[in-house]
Sequence to fold (468 residues):
Amino acid sequence: MDAGKSIDEGKEADQDWYIRLRGLPRTATEDEIAEFLVDCEIVGNVVILQNEAGRQIGDAVVKLLTKTDLERALKCNKKCIHENSVIVEETDNKTYNKHVKKMNRMDTEENTFIRLKGLVWNATEEDIKGFLKDCTLKEVVLLTNGRGKPSGNAFVHLDTESDVDRAIAHNKEYLRERFVIVEEIFKSQYISETQNMQNNTAKKPSYQEEVKKKVTSKEMDMEYNKGEQDKRANKTNFHIILRGLPWKATEHEIGTFLDDCDIVGNVIIINNEAGKPSGDAVVKLLNKIDLERALKCNRKCLLERSVVVEETDMETYNKHVKKVYKMDTEENTFIRLKGLVWSATEEDIKTFLHDCNVKEVVLTTNDRGRPTGNAFVHLDTEADVEKAMAHNREYLRERFVLVEEIYESQYIRETKEFVSQTGNVNEKSETELEGNLENGKEAKRRKTEKDKVADHMECNEEEQGNAN
Fold:
């Protein structure tokens, strides 16, 4: 949707009109925003959006009285407040109601509804009951996104207004490792959000059900194992990379930063070879509209840092995706080693994994034939994977090594790319490789491995730095 343009020309008879402002100064007040929207009749209060820490994110939503007020507001698009150019665009009642704050209690409805924000991803109904231990709860609804993944928010129906007061007293207290925002909401907000959840769960299994099923093959194929089908349907895949993130930024904070974007799977924070956040993350989005919304967040601030948001490709996303569940439909016997010394050999890796049965080792190189410090290993059994994971951050010579489990599809892609880069002869197609891996067959050993190892040993420090 273009900023400054109406999103629904056929809305003549609707009496509710809403706008969203983006790029506001974080010090902007409600009065300043109202003054900015000169000659516009505002219904209720200007709603300034905040993150889970209670800080302004630079956005606000406003309800207007008439279509004339909407047209006047859209004329303010790209005008400035405090030297900030502000985007003004039409939005809908769903977005407005999501953020509107309850300022006063109502005589005409129950005042017994609250929203919890900033929950840990795996929070359960029992966790919330424990958090609100001095309140009487009638219902808890844990919110998920369009893919059935937890959003970090929950809605709670309490028994009395006194219970609401007691719940508000827990605002910013910790539930496990995260503090939780507790805010009172209108009954209409509660009904709207919980009805949406009921509609979603009627169409697809809940997140908890997905975890119990270990995720079906079909769902994981949709996210990670597309192979050649992905290449043919590349236009239906939408990915972004975020750069310049604060190192302490969490998945939840990044998800909040990408407000109104439907994220597929998890936010993937990219770590360096020491296992620490690099300041980058990759995200898969549901559709093109979500991509456009995400790109509008470019140069917005997260924890006072300006973040670059740009489109990326499926290959970059798949390179960094992390394996969360073991699969019933494939071998769970593949790992990646990161942070190896440049001169590491296949024998070094077998010694490092001395208590594991190793079927294949692939040491990766860059396009100049220099070692990357990464290797992919095919193990014999899932028990071997558990043993290998126990070696995470142990030292191989002077460097500690990160060990992480990966999907079979990642192993196939990365080793196939390695073969194409180094020019080794391997006539197997990706489909044939998948068949071999499923049957537990050991892949053909690379003929020039010893030559590459010898070459690696001869790399000087300058060449290593360039390769890195």
About this structure: Residues 37 and 73 are 6 Å apart (CA to CA). The mean pLDDT is 77. DSSP finds 18 helices and 24 strands in the chain.
